[in-house]
Design a protein that fits this description.
By secondary structure, this protein is of the alpha+beta class. It has a domain at about 125-330: Sulfite Oxidase, Chain A, domain 2. About 15% of the residues lie in helices and about 25% in strands. The chain contains eleven helices and 26 strands. It has helices at about 10-15, 45-55, 60-65, 75-80, 175-180, 195-200, 210, 225-230, 260, 315, 430-435; strands spanning about 1-5, 25, 125, 145, 160-165, 170-175, 185-190, 215-225, 240-245, 255, 265-270, 275, 285-290, 300-305, 320-325, 330, 340-345, 350, 355-365, 370-375, 385, 385-390, 400-405, 410-420, 450, 455-460. A six-stranded mixed sheet has the order 2-26-25-24-20-21, with no helix packed on it. A five-stranded mixed sheet has the order 6-5-14-9-10. Strands 7, 8, 11, 12 and 13 form a five-stranded antiparallel sheet that branches. Strand 20 and strand 21 form a beta hairpin. It is globular and about 80 Å long.
Length: about 475
């Protein structure tokens, strides 16, 4: 499997009426040809049969399914001739110390701006390369970015966190004082409320990095917010909400229900993936609100105010609200509902030949653990249950995998997640019935990838 640049659609695809470029990126369900392969005797026999077919002469990609065959004559020069790294002395550690970097051969794996967004001189969003990641943890250097007034590298010795409002003793904490308190470390996903927004607007951006890349998962370390509130003598009976305020130029402010804070889930973080937060992730302090849209995870956190009602700030009364079919706005719709996406094969990739492939992707829910993920290769007509790879954590990304043998015919790959509350990820038709077509936020509809006969994978929608 390899990557291609852009979103190439042939003239034959367009004239057939089956596939359209954005914005008419819909595929009629009646035009889908069923492509189903089942593992009848278990996974090992399934893979063994794929290899046996390859040995019998059926076209199976050597790299993906059976390893490179040994040349009949001469042998493989990459084995027979020792490379330089097997004959010489390699590089040593930096005597002055250094921060580790990825291999130069992985330079293409990086955050990117979306071609579907208005380009500005100071970009505010970069998308994580989900198609290139493994497991559930996003490396700190690939974690998606969303800025409302740019990012800052703040002197931690001068940063302060204030607690006021309905408290007995207003407090001001330094970073050192916060880091002295009992800490917790937890894995959680963070997703921008506008993730997958362009697809809801019927614009087919080419790759999963652009459709779902405002999503990441890290191990965060910090102090539960309830601990800090108790130190300030907060009125936990009459105080129903807190206002979280950031120190960047936008003065980002968000209302957080006290019920989430009392559960102990919400915490003030200074650490990410075993080190201090990165500046673009809110260094030196940010709020962690598991399961809630990323805008509430206030960066450069400088103030927490306890109150008895929602604050309806500028970032809650004008932005991050959902336009309903009735014309009314749904406010404080912060929970990120159950969602999943196949990351391989996905848009912009190419299947090199027929044969065995591992379908893999990510699932998550803002209401708890992912219970099950089903995968379809025929546009939703038939579903198979995928394997959930451990660990399966609450309000964290979950990796799923499914064995598949591609027969070289068109296929439409989808995933459908179900969380522990019983919530089932909806289709676009189901979602638009309750949210209309004019919304921006909280698109958790099923994503579809069209595998064409030439192996190229496209972003489509199934109606």
């Amino acid at each position: 499997m390899k990557l291609i640049e852009g979103d190439r659609v042939t003239q034959e695809d367009l004239s057939s009426g089956r596939v359209h470029k954005a914005p008419e990126s819909f595929l009629n369900r009646d035009g889908i040809k069923t492509v189903v392969t089942e593992a009848k005797n278990g996974r090992r026999d399934f893979i063994r049969s794929a290899f046996a077919a390859a040995a019998a002469g059926v076209a199976v990609p050597a790299v993906m399914a059976q390893g490179n065959p040994v040349p009949a004559e001469g042998g493989d020069p990459n084995i027979l001739n020792l490379p330089e790294h097997s004959k010489g002395l390699g590089q040593g550690v930096d005597p002055e110390g250094s921060y580790g970097k990825p291999s130069k051969y992985e330079a293409n794996v990086k955050r990117r701006q979306s071609p579907g967004l208005t380009q500005t001189t100071q970009a505010s969003v970069s998308f994580a390369p989900l198609q290139s990641l493994f497991g559930i943890v996003t490396p700190s250097g690939l974690h998606f970015e969303r800025h409302h007034q740019g990012w800052w590298d703040i002197d931690p010795s001068k940063h302060r966190l204030m607690l006021n409002g309905m408290v007995k003793s207003p407090k001001v904490f330094t970073l050192d004082e916060i880091m002295r308190l009992p800490s917790v470390s937890r894995f959680h996903f963070i997703e921008c409320g506008a993730n997958t927004a362009v697809d809801w607007g019927n614009v087919a951006v080419p790759t999963v990095q652009y459709t779902h890349g405002m999503l990441s998962c890290s191990e965060f370390t910090g102090v539960p917010l309830i601990t800090l509130l108790e130190l300030a003598g907060a009125d936990l009976k009459n105080g129903k909400f807190v206002l979280a305020e950031g120190a960047d130029g936008s003065s980002m402010t968000r209302t957080i229900p006290m019920s989430l804070i009392k559960s102990g889930e919400v915490f003030v973080a200074y650490g990410q993936n075993g080190e201090m937060l990165r500046p673009e992730q809110g260094y030196p302090l940010r709020l962690i609100v598991p399961g809630v849209q990323g805008v509430s995870w206030v960066k450069y956190l400088r103030r927490i105010e306890v109150g008895d009602k929602p604050y309806a700030t500028k970032d809650e009364a004008v932005h991050y609200i959902d336009l309903q079919p009735s014309g009314q706005h749904r406010q404080y719709s912060s929970i990120q509902e159950c969602k999943s996406v196949v990351t391989t094969p996905s848009g912009g990739q190419v299947l090199l030949d027929k044969g065995f492939y591992n379908i893999t992707g990510l699932a998550w829910s803002g209401r708890g653990k992912v219970k099950r993920v089903d995968v379809s290769v025929d546009g939703g007509r038939n579903w198979r249950t995928a394997r959930l790879e451990t660990p399966v954590l609450s309000k964290a990304l979950t990796r799923f995998n499914l064995d598949w043998v591609w027969d070289g015919k068109p296929a439409i790959i989808q995933s459908r997640a179900i969380d522990e509350t019983g919530f089932v990820q909806p289709t676009y038709q189901q979602l638009r019935a309750v949210r209309s077509t004019r919304s921006i936020y909280h698109n958790n509809a099923i994503q579809s990838w069209l595998v064409q006969e030439n192996g190229e994978v496209k972003n489509v929608q199934v109606s």
